[in-house]
């Protein structure tokens, strides 16, 4: 399976960043907490044909490789393995290993190296040997988003702020692999009254009936009336009229429309009827509202 043609990198579309250790060390002198775990290399190799790495004496870092397409093969200290899509492995430091893309269907991988003062404790906590064999992971777009977030910030430079951000993001990225959980997302129940009010606002220029509003929510008129009054304290039509008058107030304040035009915009073509409703609701006629309220 091992080939003569072997590439460390240089693949079309690849992304990779090497964070110089002297930069990391200088950064950690200022922020010792961040020395617990930190990124040393990060990369993405798409369809990495002839990709091959061998380290007879291992690496100083943990190596995480996540396959999203194609496949590859690797040898750890215990056995040889095949890595398939939505599988990953973590290789601990100091252990001989070799990995390579499959010759026919080369893998697409996201990978990173990470180290730190607490790396040994971290590996003990997660039982890192369990992850040296291919481990299946549920497809989750947040993994790639988190990886991209780290790569993006490091690609702009190695400022203290950037290194701090990337290091803190590393913790979240690792949780997807070493302690994944299914977060329960509650199903938001449909609220027929909220939906109905939204429908009223979207049809503020129309005349709606209780039966029409109830029908939109697939409710009987009496049941709809009861639900609406329990939630809002008023009948649907009274509530709709108040919405119309509120919108009329906005138009009076924020535009130079004639009163007849404003009445038409909220579904009233009898200006006198609109004026009576407006005064009943606000205590002012439309012209008085514009003159007294808007000038204050």
Automatic annotation (TrEMBL):
The keyword Cell inner membrane does not apply. Pfam families: AraC_binding, HTH_18. Residues 194-292 form the HTH araC/xylS-type domain. GO terms for molecular function: DNA-binding transcription factor activity; sequence-specific DNA binding. Keywords: DNA-binding, Transcription, Transcription regulation. The keyword Hydrolase does not apply. CDD domains: cupin_MmsR-like_N (cd06986). SMART domains: HTH_ARAC (SM00342). This is AraC-like ligand binding domain-containing protein. It comes from Niabella drilacis (strain DSM 25811 / CCM 8410 / CCUG 62505 / LMG 26954 / E90). The lineage of its organism: Bacteria, Pseudomonadati, Bacteroidota, Chitinophagia, Chitinophagales.
């Amino acid at each position: 399976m091992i080939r003569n043609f072997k590439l460390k990198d240089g693949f079309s579309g690849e992304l990779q960043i090497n964070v110089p250790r002297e930069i990391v060390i200088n950064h950690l002198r200022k922020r010792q907490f961040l020395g617990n775990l930190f990124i040393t290399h990060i990369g993405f190799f798409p369809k990495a044909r002839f990709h091959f790495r061998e380290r007879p004496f291992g690496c100083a870092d943990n190596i995480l490789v996540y396959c999203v397409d194609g496949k590859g093969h690797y040898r750890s200290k215990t056995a040889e393995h095949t890595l398939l899509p939505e599988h990953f492995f973590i290789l601990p430091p100091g252990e001989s290993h070799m990995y390579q893309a499959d010759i026919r269907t080369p893998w697409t991988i996201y990978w990173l190296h990470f180290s730190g003062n607490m790396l040994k404790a971290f590996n003990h906590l997660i039982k890192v040997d369990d992850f040296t064999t291919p481990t299946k992971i549920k497809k989750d777009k947040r993994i790639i988003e988190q990886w991209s977030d780290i790569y993006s910030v490091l690609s702009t430079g190695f400022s203290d702020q950037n290194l701090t951000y990337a290091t803190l993001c590393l913790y979240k990225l690792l949780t997807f692999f070493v302690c994944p959980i299914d977060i329960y997302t509650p199903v938001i129940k449909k609220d027929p009254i909220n939906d109905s009010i939204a429908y009223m606002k979207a049809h503020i220029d129309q005349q709606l009936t209780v039966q029409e509003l109830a029908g939109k929510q697939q409710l009987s008129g009496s049941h709809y009336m009861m639900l609406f009054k329990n939630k809002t304290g008023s009948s649907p039509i009274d509530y709709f009229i108040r919405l119309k008058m509120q919108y009329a107030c906005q138009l009076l304040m924020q535009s130079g429309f004639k009163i007849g035009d404003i009445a038409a915009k909220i579904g009233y073509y009898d200006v006198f009827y609109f004026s009576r409703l407006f005064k009943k609701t606000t205590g002012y006629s439309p012209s008085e509202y514009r003159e007294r309220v808007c000038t204050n």
